[in-house]
Amino acid sequence: MKTLQLLLLLIITSLFISTVCAQSNNTNNEQTIYTTPLNGIYIIGSSSFANYSNITNAIADLTQNGVSGPVDLFLEMGTYSGCFNITNIPGSSITNTITFQSLNGDTATTTIGNSISANSYVFKLDSAHNINFKNLGFRTDGVSESKILNIINSNHISIDNCHFIGTNCCTNIINAHLIRSIASDYIYITNSTFYSGNTPIYILLLYTSVLNI
Q1: Which is nearest to 194 in space by CA: 158, 165, 160, 152?
Q2: Count of other CB atoms within 10 angstroms of residue 8
Q3: What pLDDT digit, counting tens, does each position of 101-126 carry?
Q4: Per residue in 45-80, is it b (16+ CB within 10 Å) or e — as a string?
Q5: Which is nearest to 205 in space by CA: 158, 154, 160?
Q6: Are 89 and 128 in contact, with CB atoms under 8 Å apart?
Q7: How far is CA 182 from CA 9, 15, 61, 101, in A?
Q8: Minimal CA–CA distance to 100: which of 110, 87, 108?
Q9: For residue range 20-37, what is the model confidence (pLDDT) as tens digits?
Q10: Residue 177 CB-density burial (10 A; 0-12 exposed, 13-18 middle, 19+ buried)
Q11: What beta strand segments (E) does 82-213 contain?
Q12: Is the whole model's pTM more than 0.90, yes or no?
């Protein structure tokens, strides 16, 4: 009975979070830039060298076109806001990974986050595979039960040298985490720091993980 109640609570919470972020996604309209599978290095930012002006469009291309080799998405210095959804990306594999990382390697000057004042997430990985986050700052300023990485039914997710800042908003520990992983496999968290959040990392039904924080 307790297991069933927990699963129902997680399902309800996930549905509510999805609704909030769908209504409050970043202000950029999603659009694809390329028409062929991605392969190689791409830059996200506002400079003349950037391939994408925002994370949303980069994810749209990945989802629609897939990848034909390893993809490195370098974020220029700045703050990126929104709720970002990553699902299964065609062509991704152990060798064809997708890596989001800061261009200058500085977690303090390249930050991804949101300030939604209710259940939310920054990245939701649902049935996503072979995704890496490296040298990035993450934060959520939401006042209620906000997460940064919400990982569901995914595998081979790597978080390396990242800095997480959350909020100590809630007495309900199930809904106040910086990283939440459910029914996922091969989650690697290394060389990363966590501030705030009632429970920084919450793992349920995880088969294999490497934590070296």
Answers
A1: 165
A2: 10
A3: 999 999 999 999 886 655 578 999 99
A4: beeeebbbebbbbbbbbbbebbbeebbbbbbbeeeb
A5: 154
A6: yes
A7: 13, 14, 26, 24
A8: 110
A9: 454 444 434 556 789 999
A10: buried
A11: 84-86, 98-102, 110-114, 123-126, 129-134, 137-140, 149-152, 155-160, 163-165, 179-182, 185-190, 193-195, 201-204, 209-212
A12: no
Task: Give the SS3 label for residue 201.
Answer: strand
Helix (H) or strand (E) segment spanning residue 8: helix 2-23
- In 186-205, which positions are buried (b, 16+ CB within 10 angstroms) versus exposed (e)? bbebeebebeebbbbbbbee
Report the half-sphere exposure of 205 (CA within 13 A, side-chain side). 12
Q: Which residue type sits at 52? A: Y
Assigned token pair, 205: 């039904």
- Which helix (H) or strand (E) is 39 found in, with range? strand 38-44
Q: What are phi and psi of 177, to 5 degrees?
A: -130, 150
